[in-house]
Amino acid sequence: MAITVLQEERIFKIDTESSSYVLGVLGNNVLVHLYYGGRVEDAHLAHLAPQRGRASFWSIQADAEDDFSADVMPLEYSGAGSADLRAPALAAQSETGDNVTDLRYDSCEVLPGKPDLPGLPHVYLNPGDEGETLRITLRDAVKNLYVDLYYATFAFSDAICRWAVVRNEGVQAQTLTRAMSASLSFPGMDYDLIHLHGAWAREFHMERSPIPHGEMAISSFRGASSHLHNPFAALVSKDATETQGEVYGVSLVYSGNFRIETEVDAFDALRLNCGINDRGFAWRLAPGERFCTPEAVLVYSGEGLTRMSQTYHNLYRRNLARGKYRDQPRPVLLNSWEGVYMDFDAKKLLEMAKSAASLGIEMFVLDDGWFGARSNDRCALGDWVVNEKKLGCTLHDLVEQIKALGLSFGLWFEPEMISPDSDLYRAHPDWALCPSGRAPSLGRHQLILDMTRRDVQDYVVEAVSAVLRSADIAYVKWDMNRNMAEVGSPSLPADRQGEVFHRYILGVYSVMERITSAFPNVLFESCSGGGGRFDAGLLYYMPQNWTSDDSDAIERLTIQHGCSLVYPPSAMTCHVSAVPNHQVGRVTPLKTRGAVAMLGSFGYELDMSRMTPEDCVRVRTQIIEYKCSRQLVAQGDFYRLLSPLEGNDAAFLQVSRDKSLAILTYVQKLAEPNPAVRRVRLRGLAPLIRYYCEQDRRIYDGATLMNAGYVLPEMHGDFDSVRLVFRCV
Ligand code: GLA
Asked: What is the pTM assigned to this prediction?
């Protein structure tokens, strides 16, 4: 890790262990990108951005030499309205209507460590972690608008964190209509873009497509990062695979509307911008105010996708997630939702908990339906008062009885929502997000609380905290179940309505910060109808996320495969549910449902009190197997061996950091007649270590398993699987 500043040549070089990022300032003070890729030692790379004469039509700025056009240069952070006509990083309009921003180099500083991003989730340093941050300041001289570009680098990670702070030192207010976290330049377009798209119940489907000339974007305009696109993308060389090729990952530490866009210009040069979606965004920056963008985490890998993913996994679980459970294996839980939905009383819950305890489950989670008059999803969100009539006892009594069975207790909330049919709405109709005089759309029969308001934030903090104080609650599932529409807040003036989307997320972050720090022993899990807000931003507050409402083992292969591109397995919660599966109607063996769910933070979601004695025996064994190896989920290295998108099977491998333990999970989708012998090559083992396979009771050396591969046993029937444990001897 190093930051090198060549003052005279005005060159800045940021090195990680295996990548370099180089910038330079041109004679006219324009900051240009020179290089990002595999580590180079030489910083003198100005020759990589030659200023060439171009044909007519390109605009030449007033102070530029004849042959210089910003429009054909790799600008590091481009202002809108000036001579660079490509998608800008920043757009600002002053009160007099000046919508030009021409950013020129002003100064630079190298800071020890990594500054915090106020009010925003961010990568942090642990005691003893080494890091350094480069701050380059740009300025628009007419507006006196400053942009501080930050680049943090670490001794323990190949990632570079980038963000920008816009400061208005002028006399007029500026309205920012775009403020990207980062802009990246590439000299060619010979890349594919990998991203994760989906919908409710089928999140994280990986898609790879060539990058066209012109613009292409993935984004969210739904108020949350959304099921449709995840705030992550990777630019990969055409030959990139899991194990080879160049990969540039971009992951936003943000949970609201985002945009990751590429633009390829007339000379095949590529720009990638990422940050808050500019659609619906207009932030008024009064003189003296500053605006901080969310953080973008960049990872370069010269060795394919696995290396990129592991860099994200290690960084996010050690330097982004926080709290007591950050590095700890998570309890094996039983969630009540698919078992009984909202149809329960304390007697039924205790019956489920009793069966769960007898099988080795460690925590019982009561999902939706325990508060207010909530007997269906049409009412009561906001009324966070225990429905003792429905339960037949107090929450405290229920929790104590569950604890007496040897289980800890968890509870579901959806704190950001309000049902029109709720006491809260009857008391505070103005607390629902919507411009005055309009009727807001409903989503799942519910409205959204105006989280931009301090009084609403205080209500949510107090309502959730009061329940958490009332009983010994060890876990919270924090849900959020609709997209936003009619996004306006009567509590803000007209010229600040463009701030509502972002202020909503800042409000959510603030509330989460207050609650999670007040209850440091509680394990928090975020959820948005599954993976509708599964992003690096929320991981800062909650170390795990309900990955998808679809727990069908076969669909989960694709979902978890895609999710693992950027998010660590410990963050992915995975449950075994009943068959036929409630989302797709598929019947898969319990063995396979268990094997797939054990790839992440593990649990069950069915009525355990109604399982057959044979299934009870299988579940008991599954739980023992998981407990023996869950350290791998918390801290091990994750490998995608066979992609479920490419064939009839999928394989994943988890290897402990010291390489003494490895678990191979292989799943066949459909049974094949007269199949070929299937061999799968393991990765990440120590070549000279000898491994004992607990299932076939044979010993193999690491090199053989990696080079020759492991011959899989014969599969029987659709959706069959094996989970093989290799321990060093
Ligand atoms: C969402 C969640 C589910 C469940 C329900 C309860 O859909 O994703 O897991 O909690 O809400 O209403």
From this structure: 0.98
